[in-house]
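debug: dumping io for the single-chain case to check the tokenizer round-trip. Nothing else runs in this session.
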Amino acid sequence: MQTTIKNSFAVIGTGLHSGRPVRMSVHPAAADHGIVFERTDVKSRDARVPARFNLVSDTTLCTRISNADGVSVATIEHIMAAFAGCGVHNALVKLDAPEVPIMDGSSRRFVREILSVGVSTFDAPAKILRVLKTVHVSDADAFAELSPSDDFEIDFAINFPDAVIGSQHRFLNMKNGSFVRELADCRTFCRKVDVDYMQSQGLALGGSLDNAIVVDGDRVLNTEGFRHEDECVRHKMLDALGDMALIGMPILGRYRGVRAGHRVTNLLLRKLYATPGAFEIIDADMQYAAKLPGVGVTVEDLDLAI
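debug: decoded output
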């Protein structure tokens, strides 16, 4: 069955790019509505932007989507991961700025709000995209592929020169609430030298130790350190889930990423849709629905983060 949230909720946070406050509210939506963002600060143009992979217009530092009128919303990947990980298919997200608030750099606040208000179902079948044959893309030293699987799985590897990150690898079957327990609280991360350069160029003006892990060689500059020893690769998996959710429906398949980011994942989705016979869209009966992220999770699962 398709789902939406039971009640609206609101959050206020800082915009990663502008450094200014962003007011955002999330509302229930009808079946077949999908996830749609609405810019309440836009009056003279179409203010709504559907969360779809073919509307991705930029992948620099984050994922940005834009509609035909040029209205855009940036940094959507963390809330999209929260929707996917909590099994929410339909919602209207209203915000008074061109970006989703970064919060603490993870999906934790969004997940807590979704699970606190609850998820309701419609008497309308949900659709699932089932991968039928392997599709892969590469870009410089980054690689991503989708291959057939009976579940939705994410297999991710990263390698950074900073000793405090180094090489990390993790594999997760995303059913049974594993996103909520193992990925939702994992923050975005960056190198201090990159932060200094970006901010000197007027980028990531809202970036701080409050909303990202900042590393410098063999040191984590955040007082609390990592939430998980491998928090960096876990966050990459969170990002991948959020970007994959732009397909517009749950997926049965294995996503494998090696040093992949927003650009590579979006290229993968575009190639998947352009490859004849690579997938089929099926109704989510009880057997398939039980394999999807978000089934049966509660807010208590978030507090069991491991």
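debug: round-trip ok. The two ends are 29 Å apart (CA to CA).
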